[in-house]
Amino acid sequence: MDKTIVFLDDGFLSKLSRHLGRGDYIRFDRIKFSEVISEKERLECKHIFYYNAPPFQSDKPTSEEEKRKKGYDKFISKLIKNNKITIREGRCQRLKIDGKFIYKQKAVDSLAIIDLMNIPLRHKDIKNIIIVSSDSDFVPAIENLKEFGVKTILYTYYEKKRDTNFSRSNELVKSVGKYVLLKKEDFERSKITKYLKEVDKNA
C-alpha cells in the first residue's frame, strides 16, 4: 500500500465538526481521522501535519481565556506524544468589528505552504498527499507539487446555499487531482469518548 501525508487545517475541521453536529462539536481523534480518510483512498497514513493556533490571550488574561488555554495545552500535549504527527502553531488575533470581537488565526496558512513545498525534498517516496481544508491559499503550492509528480487529494466541504460558512472555492477544487466532500460519518468513525470539548471551541 502506498503511503501518504495528511495535512489537517484544524480551524476548518473544528468549524465543520460543529456544523455537522448541528451546533454541537463532534469530538474526534485527529490521528484516527487521518487514518480513516487515508484508508478510504487505499493509502497508508505515514505522517500528519496539524495546523492550529493557541486561544487568544489578553495582556491580562481573563479566567475564561486561561481556562481555554489550559484545555488547549492539555490537548496539544497529548497529540505531541505521538511521533506520527507534527504540530504547527500560528497565533490567534482578536479584532473588533461593529462592536463585536472576532478571532482569526494568523500565519497558519504560511506554515502549511512551507511544509507542502518541502514534500518533494524531504519525502521523496510520497506521491499522494491529502489536504483537509477549504483554503484557496494552498493552490500555488498544489500546482507546484504537480511538477514533481505529487497528486493532491482534497477533503473539504461546501454548500450551494448563499450566506454560508462553507462556500465552494472553485480555484482550489480545480487545482487538485481529486476532491472528496467530508461527511458526518468521517468524524463519527473517529469519535472518542473522553475529550476536552473546550479545545474544539478554541480551534
Question: Could you walk me through the main structural features you see in this protein, from its secondary elements to its overall organization?
Answer:
With 203 residues, the protein is of the alpha/beta class. The protein has one domain (3-202): 5'-nuclease (Rossmann fold, 3-Layer(aba) Sandwich). Helices cover 39% and strands 25% of the residues. The strands form two sheets. Strands 3-2-1-6-7-8 form a six-stranded parallel sheet. The protein has a two-stranded antiparallel ribbon with strand order 4-5. Strand 7, helix 6 (170-175) and strand 8 form a beta-alpha-beta unit. Helix 4 runs parallel beside helix 5. The two termini are 33 Å apart. Residues 195-203 have low confidence and may be disordered.
* Count of discrete domains: 1
Our estimate of the beta-strand percent is: 15-25%
Q: Overall 3D geometry?
A: globular
Looking at the structure, the CATH topology is Rossmann fold
Rg over CA atoms, rounded to whole Å, is 17 Å
Tell me the CATH superfamily. Answer: 5'-nuclease
Second CATH tier, the architecture: 3-Layer(aba) Sandwich
Q: Into which percent range does the helicity of residues fall?
A: 25-40%
- CATH class designation: Alpha Beta
H/E element sequence: EHHEHEEEHEHEHEHH
Quick overview:
The protein is α/β, with parallel strands linked by helices.
Keywords:
8 helices; 39% helix; 203 residues; two-stranded antiparallel sheet; Rossmann fold; alpha/beta; globular
Strand-helix topology:
Layout: E1 3-9, H1 10-20, H2 30-40, E2 44-52, H3 63-79, E3 85-89, E4 91-97, E5 100-106, H4 108-122, E6 128-132, H5 139-146, E7 151-156, H6 170-175, E8 178-181, H7 184-188, H8 197-202
Parallel strand pairs: 1-2, 1-6, 2-3, 6-7, 7-8
Antiparallel strand pairs: 4-5
Helix pairs in contact: 4-5
